[in-house]
Specification:
The complex is a heterotrimer of chains A (328), B (206) and C (351). Chain A has helices at 8-13, 15-40, 43-67, 76-86, 94-109, 122-133, 135-138, 155-160, 171-175, 188-200, 205-224, 232-241, 245-252, 263-283, 290-327. With 328 residues, chain A is mainly alpha-helical. Chain A has one domain (8-327): Orthogonal Bundle (Ammonium transporter fold), CATH 1.10.3430. Chain A is globular and about 80 Å long. The longest helix of chain B is centred in the C-terminal third of the chain and has 31 residues, at 136-166. In chain B, helix 3 crosses helix 5 (106-117) and helix 4 runs antiparallel to helix 5 (106-117). Chain C is mainly α and 351 residues long. Chain C has 17 helices and two strands. In chain C, a hairpin with a 2-residue loop joins strand 1 (167-168) and strand 2 (171-172). The chains are: A mainly alpha (328), B mainly alpha (206), C mainly alpha (351). Chains B and C meet through helix 2, helix 4, helix 5, helix 6 and helix 8 of B and helix 2, helix 4, helix 5, helix 6 and helix 7 of C.
Chain lengths: 328, 206, 351
């Protein structure tokens, strides 16, 4: 029977697995930072480094004081900090990234026991916190320094306004991340490449399946219920390329602490998160909602797994009862 | 016409569950949610009672306002007194009936009635529907939505509590109530993605 | 913490704690998680928090002694309605007065001011404590709970006003604006962090042997706790009633219940899926049971009690559970809480 997750055992037994996972995650994030540097300049790596350092300092101090053990050497804090920074605009003040990273570590990770124990994805919660507390700053996107964007509005805000813009049909424009948006999540082609690599890497294959399910579910809803007047395919393109949706699917979703164990449950989890992300886009208050969707999916998954287990137990109990009655 | 009414009712109910989740965006019934979530059984009974009483109270209050138009113009505290009295009378009638009629679930229902019915969530529904200017069908739907919101919230928090109980890595100072509250806070953060603000708009003043 | 091996440890009960220490140790918000709704939803400024604290405190100070004096004979469902009526009687005139004063607090608190009438704080404390204790004890408990609740509410209000606005009592101190803190999510978060802080504070104080009226069990060295546990167990050995009840609650080891209890036909019945509502135990039945040695002579009311969640769990099952019980059973409940506190402490230390 699949159980809802005591992954704390992994942390206590072997930190190497966590470290390996996190270092690979950092390596996979690097191309996004390179693309961001190309478009927005030195602000991108600077913000990423500041966020990573802030997260690591928070984890080092809080880990010692609260958890009474050294937790920072698994590099998870650095990954969380970098991911929070990637979802912010390039012109964000450093304190914004610091606050987001600190929240992710001090509120979402440490109180629940650190890496592999947090019930929510720390980077998603950190960004959600920033969105709720500083919405004006989080969506204050700046245009690229190198490429003149056709439109100074982000794709997500255009979708929210129900506006279709023809330049979205310029695939290279959209896939290469030349639209206005978060500093590290705009290049869909890089994210797709990372997804492909994840399928090739041992240990990340089924995690990548969750990401694929997320994107497939989001694409399906975008196709079925377009927010814009263009063709349905245009709607799919715009939805997948806008904001941090694809980034959340490929990088945030496969968090080992919250990912279910079996491949089919992972696929279901990804699909549920994709549906929630699109629902929040249709009904929610913010133009970027993927992180909120991930938090809802994190909360719902243990409930669904427990419900599934209870039903399975009930079936077994009924079968045993029938057997006893048959014998009697 | 009926279809439109039904759609309006469905919208009002879904608003109460998701967009203006009375528990996570309003903080209503927080104590009852956590106490209900601590137990493994009884959550659905709670939710049903909340739905029924919210809907009934709100409907009766709305009808009274329709039958006695003067009530629309009285000051807010008299509305409070009226709605509170309606809820109280309803509660007393139901409890008295339950205590007089012997049936299997009598003791069980009476045990939960007080906490399930006389709480901030149930009382808030008629007040909110009056403030939002809902008509009768939408008022009833909002009451039903309140029960659904309670059910969803308590199930989510209950599953979270199970998770936290299995998690031996939680530091000692966070075990129990602190971890539960922080977990609930993060759940509320997730639901803020729908509303973007507090249900009561509180906080604009210093 | 010096071990007190030579000194005979007295049998300590909750009565020996200073009554005001319950404001901290049994804090209604941070420990018991009751009365959360106003704190989480509306305590976003110091002024609003003060209103909540005063209203909740007065409501409690009225309800608990009244319950102890007059209401304990009523059925629980009717008692809860009485708390609500008292709350309405308090809140409606207050709102009338505040509106006349054109106070901005009223506008800020919106519909939550009337909802204070239905705050779970008074109801839970009355059902857990007031129905089982005399009026002076209820007054002390109400005072301690009101102080504890008020302190936490004010603290939460100050923190949220400062972080949300950068102000204190309406005066801008620094330019700071974290919107999320005003929302219920911020309220839950602040209360959760304060709860963790309180837990840490109590542990630290007990580890350093500083007596703050803290639970005396925290002061004992591990070896002395076993002595204390044994003494508490012995308290029940003479009273068959209490021992049966503690066995059913799983506190005493399984060998303790007598063999007769296992073969007793009624005790062998599977417990109902939902716990049965415990009927009030007549004093005569308790007295009769205390003299008996075998479970076969246990009256039906007490046998039924074995199948329910007893001890501290009875109070937690809902307001309607705390029916008036005899003094002997009330003492059993108290001692059960002591044993549970010891167990919890040992589990924490073994981590």
């Amino acid at each position: 029977m699949e159980e809802a997750l005591p992954r704390w055992k992994k942390l206590l037994r072997d930190n190497r697995e966590a470290r390996r996972w996190n270092l690979v995650s950092l390596e996979l994030t690097l191309p996004l930072l390179v693309v961001g540097y190309y478009y927005y300049g030195a602000a991108v790596p600077r913000l990423a480094v500041i966020a990573a350092l802030a997260a690591m300092i928070c984890e080092a101090v809080a880990g010692r004081l609260v958890l009474r053990r050294r937790t920072v050497d698994d590099w998870n804090a650095a990954v969380v900090g970098v991911w929070v920074a990637c979802m912010l605009p390039a012109g964000s003040p450093p304190w914004l990234a610091v606050v987001g990273a600190a929240f992710a570590i001090l509120v979402v990770k440490i109180p629940f026991g650190g890496t592999l124990s947090a019930p929510f994805i720390p980077a998603a919660a950190g960004f959600a916190f920033l969105t709720v507390c500083f919405p004006a700053r989080v969506f204050a996107y700046v245009p690229s320094v190198l490429v003149d964007p056709v439109d100074y509005r982000s794709l997500a805000s255009l979708l929210r306004g129900g506006q279709f813009v023809p330049h979205v049909r310029n695939i290279s424009y959209v896939l290469l991340g030349q639209t206005v948006g978060p500093m590290g999540t705009g290049s869909l082609i890089v994210i797709a490449a990372v997804l492909l690599i994840s399928f090739l890497l041992k240990g990340r294959r089924t995690a990548a399946l969750a990401s694929l399910s997320f994107l497939a579910a989001a694409a399906l809803l975008a196709f079925a219920f377009p927010r814009i007047a263009g063709s349905r395919l245009d709607s799919v393109w715009m939805e997948l390329c806008s904001g941090s949706l694809a980034f959340a699917a490929v990088f945030l979703l496969p968090d080992p602490a919250t990912l279910p164990r079996r491949w089919f449950t992972r696929a279901g989890y990804g699909a549920m998160a994709g549906v929630l992300a699109m629902l929040l886009r249709y009904l929610g208050s913010y133009e970027e909602s993927a992180c909120f969707a991930l938090l809802l999916a994190n909360a719902a998954m243990p409930l669904l797994i427990r419900a599934k287990n209870e039903i399975a137990h009930l079936k077994v109990a009924l079968a045993q009862k029938k057997q006893r009655e048959g014998v009697a | 016409m009926i279809r439109e009414q039904l759609m309006a009712m469905l919208t009002a109910a879904l608003y109460a569950v998701f967009l203006y989740n009375l528990v996570f965006s309003g903080g209503l019934g927080a104590t009852e949610i956590i106490r209900a979530a601590k137990k493994n059984g009884g959550m659905l009974t709670f939710s049903l009672l909340i739905s029924v009483f919210s809907a009934l109270t709100a409907a009766i209050c709305r009808l009274l306002t329709v039958w006695i138009p003067k009530l629309e113009t009285v000051e807010f505290q008299w509305h409070v007194l009226l709605y509170g009295s309606v809820l109280l009378v309803l509660y007393l009638i139901v409890c008295t009936t339950l205590s007089l009629v012997r049936f299997k679930a009598q003791a069980y229902l009476l045990k939960y009635m007080g906490m399930a019915v006389l709480n901030t969530l149930v009382m808030a529904v008629p007040l909110l529907s009056f403030q939002l200017g809902y008509n009768l069908p939408r008022t009833i739907a909002m009451g039903v939505g309140a029960g659904l919101a309670f059910a969803g919230a308590s199930l989510l928090i209950n599953s979270g509590m199970h998770l936290l109980q299995q998690n031996k890595a939680i530091p000692v100072m966070f075990t129990g109530v602190p971890a539960t509250l922080i977990y609930t806070a993060l759940l509320a953060l997730a639901f803020t993605g729908f509303t973007g603000s507090s249900l009561f708009g509180v906080g604009g003043e210093a | 913490m010096a071990a007190k091996k030579e000194k005979e440890m007295p049998l300590i009960t909750a009565k020996e704690r200073h009554w005001l220490s319950d404001a901290l140790i049994a804090n209604p918000v941070l420990v018991q998680a009751i009365g959360l709704a106003p704190v989480v939803a509306v305590a976003t400024s110091l002024r609003a928090a003060l209103v909540i604290a005063v209203v909740a405190g007065v409501h409690l100070l009225l309800c608990e002694p009244l319950t102890s004096l007059l209401l304990r004979r009523l059925p629980a469902w009717l008692r809860v309605a009485c708390y609500y009526v008292l709350g309405l009687a308090l809140v409606v005139p207050l709102q009338y007065v505040l509106r006349r004063m054109d106070d901005p607090i009223v506008a800020a608190m919106d519909i939550f001011l009337p909802l204070l009438a239905i705050n779970s704080l008074a109801a839970v404390r009355c059902e857990r404590f007031a129905v089982l204790h005399n009026t002076p004890a209820c007054l002390k408990d109400a005072a301690a709970t009101a102080v504890g609740y008020g302190t936490v509410t004010v603290l939460v209000g100050v923190i949220r006003e400062f972080l949300g606005h950068g102000s204190f009592l309406g005066r801008q101190v620094i330019t700071f604006d974290v919107r999320g803190i005003w929302m219920p999510f911020g309220g839950f978060l602040v209360v959760g962090v304060l709860a963790a802080g309180l837990k840490l504070l109590l542990r630290t104080l007990s580890e350093h042997g500083i007596v703050v009226g803290a639970h005396k069990a925290m002061e004992l060295a591990p070896e002395d706790r076993e002595v204390r546990r044994e003494k508490t167990r012995k308290l029940f050995e003479d009273a068959e009633t209490r021992r049966q009840v503690l066995s059913a609650a799983g506190v005493l080891p399984p060998e303790n219940p007598p063999e007769e209890a296992k073969t007793e036909p009624q005790a062998a019945e599977p417990p109902p899926e939902e716990p049965a509502h415990p009927k009030p135990i007549p004093a005569e039945a308790v007295a009769e049971a205390e003299g008996k040695k075998t479970a076969a002579a246990l009256p039906p009311e007490l046998r039924e009690l074995e199948e329910t969640e007893f001890g501290g769990l009875v109070a937690e099952a809902g307001y309607a559970d705390a029916e008036p019980v005899s003094e002997g059973v009330a003492a059993a409940m108290e001692a059960l809480e002591e044993l549970e506190a010891l167990d919890e402490l040992e589990q924490e230390e073994s981590k």
